[in-house]
Write a structure and sequence with these properties.
- This protein is mainly α.
- Helices cover 71% and strands 0% of the residues.
- The protein has six helices and no strands.
- It has helices spanning 3-41, 48-55, 68-85, 87-95, 99-109, 120-139.
- It is extended.
- The chain starts with a helix and ends in an 8-residue tail after the last helix.
Amino acid sequence: MTDTVKESQVEHLLNELYELRVALAEITRRVSRIEKVVKAAYPNAVAPREAAVKKDKATTGEMPTMDREEALAFFDKLRDTTNADGTEAGMRSLDNLSIANLIFLAKELGATVGNKKSSRRTLTKEILGKVRQSIMLRQHTPVNTES
């Protein structure tokens, strides 16, 4: 390929990126406008999960109520539930845990947990990532292999 062909392809891709960004900005504005109208018309229409996520931050004085074995058993159950019933079922299971237990579980699984206060949403996302990773590994790892 010549330099002019490469340059024209790059320019075309950059133009396409710009158009997509403009379209996304327009979509974002429309969604925000619709949300404002819905919230004004139906104040109780806000999903309870969204409200809980915004306010639920970890506190430094809270201690986890589960130990290492309980955390790993919970993870096995969570993996099976998520595999059978989908991500939403896994999220519901994690919603029942306290922030301290979520932090403990995430650390036990080796998930990235920041030094600052972690939100429920971030912890849930990290834990579910480990669950998906475990599901994928189980699907591609033979359980009973003969040597």
